[in-house]
Amino acid sequence: MQDGTISSLGHPQVTEPGSRPVFPSDCPIRQLLDRIGDKWSVLTLLVLGDTAMRFGELRRCIGGVSQKVLTQTLRSLERDGLLTRLVEPTVPVSVTYSLTPLGLDLLSALRLMMEWAETRMTLVKAAQNEYDQRGAR
Amino acid sequence: MQDGTISSLGHPQVTEPGSRPVFPSDCPIRQLLDRIGDKWSVLTLLVLGDTAMRFGELRRCIGGVSQKVLTQTLRSLERDGLLTRLVEPTVPVSVTYSLTPLGLDLLSALRLMMEWAETRMTLVKAAQNEYDQRGAR
DNA sequence: CAGCATCCATGACGATACTG
DNA sequence: CAGTATCGTCATGGATGCTG
Questions:
Q1: Cβ-nearest to A22 among B6, B63, B128
Q2: 10-49 in A: which are within 8 Å (CB) of B?
Q3: Is the whole-model pTM more than 0.90?
Q4: Of the candidates A104, A125, B22, B87, which lies 20 to 30 Å from B6 by C-alpha distance?
Q5: B94-99 vs B83-88, strand pairing mode
Q6: Alpha helix stretches (DSSP H) within chain A
Q7: Contact B127 A80 (CB under 8 A)
């Protein structure tokens, strides 16, 4: 059981001799995935990591998200302590969203994943094409 | 447009003066999230990152996944070139899954996220409790 | 053992209309 | 502008039974 293994991350796993790491449904990783593993959360964090933004602007930055779902996503992230919602009582009202330190912290952990996507998704696509061709013949 | 911003990652964004970064539905990050943003993909990569494993064993390591869905998940990841499926024609048949170099590479990018979950999910839970109490009163 | 086929429930998501 | 409310759809995933 050396560094680099999952075990070194300190999960509440079964580690009896001969057994395998187990990820119960209430382990931290699954909790995180359950929360930000939806369609828009990561994207929202990503956009707000660049700059604080108002609702309408935010929506225009994320292609295809409906107004209802964006509201839901923002509420969840606010509840998680990842972003703050600032209401300015102008007329009409203006609402600005920005990441908390915790949100920025998560985002920095996600950056590596995004860079991977930038540089490696072409390889994934190539693999998919090859796989599909194998199935066709 | 400085380092550390989203823009520095090189997205196919609109960058006209005064405009904001835009994440169209076909940008690499959204493609990646569409692929591994499901309920079990990341978890599967995680388990296989530790050690190659057979189907039944794999299933026991991921609490709550059904046989059908695990099969689907594995097929997708194989199609993406992230893992390999090795069939040994014994009786009964034995199938071993292991990560490809590309899969290991992605996993290393995801490790930071997992460590974040390990150390920060308690903070998220605390934020949720506080949020819920505010709504209750 | 490692699937495939089928049926079914759920909820995430989208479209639309309306409001302070 | 930034929502809330309502309805409908569809994909995801769970349960079960069968098979090489």
A1: B63
A2: 10-11, 20-25, 28-33, 35, 37-39, 42-43, 46-47, 49
A3: no
A4: A125
A5: antiparallel
A6: 28-36, 41-50, 55-61, 67-79, 101-136
A7: yes
